[in-house]
Request: fold
Amino acid sequence: MPTDLQALRDLEHVGLGAPIADEAFDRFARLVRRHLKVPAAVVYFVVPEGQVLAGASGMPEPFQSKRLLQYPGTLTNLIATRAEPVVSSDARLDPELRDTYLVREMGLVALAGYPVFDLRGRAVGALCAVVDEPRPWSEDDLASLADLAAACTAELRLRAERERARRIQQTAVRANRRSRFLLSLSEAFANANTMDQVEAVIVEVGTTGIGARYCAFAVADADGRGISYRSLVHAEPQFPQRMRQAKLDDHRPVSEAARTGRPLYFRSSEELFSAFPGTRDICDPGVGARAFLPVVTAGVVVAVIMLAWERDRGPDKDSYALQTGLAHYTGHALERARLLEERRESAKTLQRAMLSRLPEVAHLDMAATYSPATRSDQIGGDWYDAVAVDDDATMFMIGDVTGHDMRAAAKMGQLRSLLRAFAWSHDESPSALLSLLDKANSGLGLLASGTAVVARLERVAGAYQLTWSTAGHPPPLVLREDGTVERLSVLPDMMLGVRPTAKRTDHVATLYPGDTLLLYTDGLAEQRGTTPDQWLNRLQKTLGVLGDTATAALPVTLVRRLASDEQRDDVAVLAVRVRAASPSGPPSPGRPATAERKLAPSLCDVGPARIWVDDVLESCGVPMPLRRTVMLLTSEALTNAVDHGQAPFTATVEVDMKRLRVGVRDSSTAQPELRDPTVTDFGGRGVQFLERLASRWGVDRHGEPASTQPRAGQRGSRRTGKTVWFELDLS
Reply:
C-alpha cells in the first residue's frame, strides 16, 4: 500500500477515507475538465480498499456514483507510489502502463496526473486528467494541472490543520473538564463527614457530573461477608427491596465487584443479563449501560457504586477516568467519615456519661436530651441537671461553657458538679447558687466562662412556684396547658467567669397543672444571620405546635425540627411538665379516684387527652410500665371515637385499690368490631389491642335509639350513645 498507517488515519480524520463525494474536490475535477478540455478528471486518495474518488467529473458509471476503484495494479497508483507526476500522450505505447486495468479494460489512452501531498509531505493521492484517445499535453496544460494539484494539496493540508486544531481543542476541553470534575469532587467530598453526606455527594456527582440516570451506593458489611445498598431511592426503577442485601459469594455484579475489587462495565441490559442471568428478574430491561465501581481503601473493598444510563453505551476513556476518580475520592471520604463517626460516638459516650440521670419526682414529668454538633468529633460544654431537694422542691439547671473541645467539656464537668453539690447542700435561691458557683469558679482556678440558668420549682397550693436566675443565658419558655407559649424574658445577669462579685437577681412565675417549663442552650434554634428575637420567635412557634407531644418526646422532637442537618453547635434541652392530678385525690379503701374530661371533636385533642389520662394515673400511683400499656389502649379508644363516633366525647378515669378503668363515651350507637386486618390494611387494629392487652373490655349502651320520638308533654329521652371501656388489674 503506498501510504502508511498514520497517513490513512489522517485521511479518515479529515473525512476522506470513505468513498463519498467531496464538494471541494469535485470542484477541482470540474476545473480540470474545463481548463484542459478533457472528457474526465478525478482527485483520488489511496486507501486499503483501492482509490477513493473524492473528486470526480465525467467518469463512467459505476465509478462516478460509487467513488471507488478497487482493481489491483491501477495505473493511478503509480503517481502516489512515485510521489511525482505521471504524463503519457498514449499509454498503450508505454510498456509500464499498457497492461494496467484502466488501459486494457476501460480504454484509457492519454493520462496526466500530479500527486497530492498531506501535511507531513507524504503522497496520499493525485489529481488526474484522462482521455480516451491520444492527446499531446502542452506546457500550459501541465502547468494548470500542477497548479490545481497544489491547490488540492493546500486544501488537504488546511483540513488537516483544522482537524488537528479541533482535536487539540477537544483534548484540552476534556482535560479541563476532567480537572474541573476532579476539583469539584474534592470540594464536594471535603464537607462530607457522615455516611449520609457521602452518599448524597455520590448521587449528585454520579447523576449530574457523570451523566448517569440512576445511582446506588452499597456498603460492605462489618463482618466482610456481604454488602448492602444504603438506599434505593435513586436506584433504577423496580429494583426490589428484597435484593437490597447480597452475600459476597452471590452471582450478582455488585457481589463480584466487591469480591474481586475490579470494576464491571456492561454496554447494555442484554450484556448484563448474559453475564449474570439471575439479574434478568430484578433489573429493568429498559435501562441501558451499567457500571459497578468498587471503592477500595487500604487494599479492601469497602463499598460499590452502581451507575446506570438510559441508553446503551461503552466505557470511553473520559467516562472511565471520571468514574475511577469518583471511586477514588469516595474511598477517602468513607475512611474519613468512619473515623469521624467513631470519634464522635466516643465523644458522645463520654459526654453522656458526664450528664446525670434525671430524678423521679412525684407530679412532675421530666425529659432531657443532649445532641452534639454533627460537624465535629469533639464534645462541647453544654449540660443539664436536676436535683430533688425535698418532696416539694426540685432544682433544674442548664448551661453552656464557652468552647467546643475537650477542655471545655472538662470545665463543664467541674462546674456542673460544683453546682449540683451546692444545690443539694445549700438551701438557697437560684441567684445565690449562681453566685456561689461563680466565686468557686474563680477561687478554685477553673476560670471557665459560660452561661447558665438555675430554676427552683416548688409546690404550693394547687400549683408550682418557679423561681429562676439567669447568667447571660437564653430565657426559659413555658408551654401553657392551653397551647400558648410564654417567654420568661428578663434582663439577664452577668455571664459566669467575668466578675464573680456581680449581683444576681431572682425572678418568679407560676406553673399550673399541664404547663411545661423548657430550658435549652442556644444551639437549639440559633441561626447565622438572624437576631436573637427572630430565632426565639421560631422556637416559640415550634414549641406551640408541639403542645400535644408527650414530655418524653418533646426535647428530641424540638432538636429534630430546629437543629439543621449540619448542626454547628451542641444542644441541651430540658423539659419539665407539671402533671394534672386526679380531682378526687388518690384512691383509698372504699373510695376510688375519679376524673372526667370532655374532648373536642378533633384528632388534635387526642394527644392532650392521652397526656391528661397519664397525669391522672401518675397522681394515683400507677407504675410507669402499666401506664405505657394504658397509653396505647387509650390512644386507640380516643382515636376510634373521634374517627367513627359522634360528638360530644368524654373520657373518664377510675382507679381503686385493685384495678383501673378508662372509658371513652360518644353519641354514636355503632358498635366497635373485632377485625383481622392484613399487613397492608391501614387500620382495624384498635379492638385487637383491647382484646389482647386489657384485662377486660366492653361497650356500655346509653339511652334509647335516636328514632324514638317523645310524646307531647314528655321530656326528651336521655342522650343516646355508648362508652367503650377497658380495665387493667393493678396486681
